[in-house]
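In this section we turn from sequence analysis to structure. A common task in structural bioinformatics is to predict how a protein folds when a small molecule is present, because the ligand can shape the pocket around it. The inputs are simple: the amino acid sequence and a SMILES string for the ligand, here pyridoxal-5'-phosphate. Study the lines below before reading on.
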Amino acid sequence: MPTASRSFPVSLFGVLDLDFVRGEFPALETDWALMDNAGGTAPCRQVIELMRAHMERVPVQLGASYGLSVEAREAVEAGRRAAARLVGSEADEIVLGASSTVLVQQLASVLRASWDTGDEVVVTNLDHEANIGPWRRLEETGIVVREWRFRDETLTLHEDDLEPLLSERTRLVAFTHCSNVVGSIVDVAALAARARAAGALTCVDGVAFAPHRRVDVRALGVDFYLASLYKVFGPHLGLMFGRRELLREAKSPNHFFVSEESVPTKFEPGNVNYELAASLVGILDYLQALGAHHGLGEELDLGACFARIDEHEEELVRPLLLFLDEHPRARRIASAAPAGTERVPTVSFTVDGMRSSELPPLLDERRLAVRYGHFYAYRLVRDLGLLDRDGVVRVSLAHYNSPREVERLIEALDEVL
Ligand SMILES: Cc1ncc(COP(=O)(O)O)c(C=O)c1O
């Protein structure tokens, strides 16, 4: 349920009232500073409560005539509507699944059925492997795979580099909305328009973007879009938006007797996890409460909420970027862009004379949850030549992090580097 709250002018507490925000996340009642949020965010209280309520009150199978089953079905469908609202689509365009990885694997095999040998797909070397591997694997079935490489200077994707990869046989371009390692945001609308003009579909990985900015799949003009809800303050579920007509046309991976018309059910073999799906409403409830508390209106306005989140995150990340840029041993692996439209508060770096695996344990002692590795963006880290350094150290902030936590991190880095 939406939380009734007083609204305060911004000036009383800065951009976000962090006492309010952090109070909505039970897991933040700890002395650990959670800075591995691109790996997964804490779930908000509203999500936890709805999940619990579902398991306690309506733990029954959907699709029966009895009242409890009807109630359970409505709760799951409300979750799907919430997921749809989160990305700006209709509910029947949302497929829920165990993870984004699994949803892309399913999509690739479903779409392959309508493609011919010699048809082409474009993948990047910037993405998380979830949106590369399933497409690349189609090579074994006669699909031609082309690689769209990020530019070293900007660590992002450029339209000019896509152009020569497109042909009349390109069936799909798979690319990320935002890097989960370097935080750079890709201009999806422009790139999707270019792919569309070439007659290709687009599959965009929004997993690293969705926790930080408003997603609007219509404005982006994409065909398929992924988000992982456990990184958006929710439960361990993946979401795939698919344009309605594409979902209808695609061959069902479900049992033979499940109708081709039953969208999105035909893409959810074995059903969705009911309690997790039902809890998705809690993400919107939380954002509604956040908006109401900050004077952004009693009605949920996702654009306004995420604009406020963005503003806070930008302030949060700035001192860290400055510190890294000024420290003689730290090498920031990121575009030069400060924040705003070009990056989210996910910052990766290496340290001269140190393997990336050596730093996080030193921060553990200070209760700073930071991580090293390639974060499944294996090709990115490999092509940056950093695999033999144990990858990068990644600090990924969320809007519930406080300036004091970032200060603690900077103090710690100052001490140990
Ligand atoms: C950018 C990005 N894409 C995809 C994934 C995979 O998400 P899931 O765990 O839901 O499969 C991740 C997970 O870390 C990610 O960061």
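Residues 291 and 305 are 6 Å apart (CA to CA). As an exercise, try to locate the residues that line the pyridoxal-5'-phosphate site and compare them with your own expectations.
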